[in-house]
Amino acid sequence: MRRLILIAIATLVPLSIGAFGEPCAFGGTTGDFHGYAQHEFEVDNVACKVVCPNEAASGNPWIWRARFWGHEPQTDIALLEEGFHVAYTDVSDLFGNDVAVKRWNRFYACLTGDHGFARKPALEGMSRGGLIIYNWAIANPDKVACIYGDAPVLDIRSWPGGKGDGPGSESDWKMCMRHYNLTEDTATDFKGNPVDNLQHLVDAGIPLLHVVGAADKVVPVSENTAVLAGRYRGLGGSIQVISKDGIGHHPHSLKDPQPIVDFIRRYASGTH
To answer: For 177-209, what is each residue's pLDDT tens digit?
Structure first.
């Protein structure tokens, strides 16, 4: 009788496989993500998504996507095939500030505490998504397996500020300054960027992978990834940079995502 009841409930409530193989409901609505079940729900009134593999890998590994959900999804799809979950929570237009970090804290607690996800996910951030993945990792270095940044923004003065070689974005810059309580004058000496706060990540031994377009004029490599890579290595950290000759800010990712997948599998699957 108990088995029949569980089967009946499963037809009504989206389930994932949590720790020890026990079913756990996300609630919300269920859709399709390239052939996999996508669950959409809210945590503290913030929109969230989780895509479940057909069979979760041992330890329930997951990749945490920041911004631009579904854009160039080849890495996410490949990891789903290997038993990873793919997760997302909305921090749009917060530029990785303290409010965004707190939203991520709550979502992390939900997935690891309520759904048995692995304690250390891989973080994935494209473009401005680089701000939240790094700022959250800096605040939570003990909760990160590895970081994959794709043409990531790592200094708000570069983008959206446009204070270097890039054009920036005037409207986004005004919004960003509001979210950080900055002015044009105080932004000059702002030290809350990912490039300024790397020691905790090095101390935690977090490996980094960046994929960049060598000709990126929107988020110039020289003001973002090159700065972070130089400082990270100087502090003793490990970072690999894949540079795409002749490519600008787009397209993101790689046509064949295998190098990205191999990196994430190595560090986030619990086998390293």
So the answer is: 999 999 999 999 999 999 999 999 999 999 999
CATH number assigned to the domain comprising residue 53: 3.40.50.1820
Domains contained in the chain, number: 1
- pTM, to two decimals: 0.90
Q: Which domain holds residue 121?
A: 2-268
Task: Indicate if the pLDDT at residue 10 is higher than 90.
Answer: no
Closest CA to 122 of 83, 72, 85: 85
Which residues partner with 47 through β-bridges? 42
Q: What is the pLDDT of residues 29-62, one digit of tens each?
A: 899 999 999 999 999 999 999 999 999 999 999 9
**How far is the CA of 124 from the CAs of 2, 12, 187, in angstroms?**
40, 31, 26
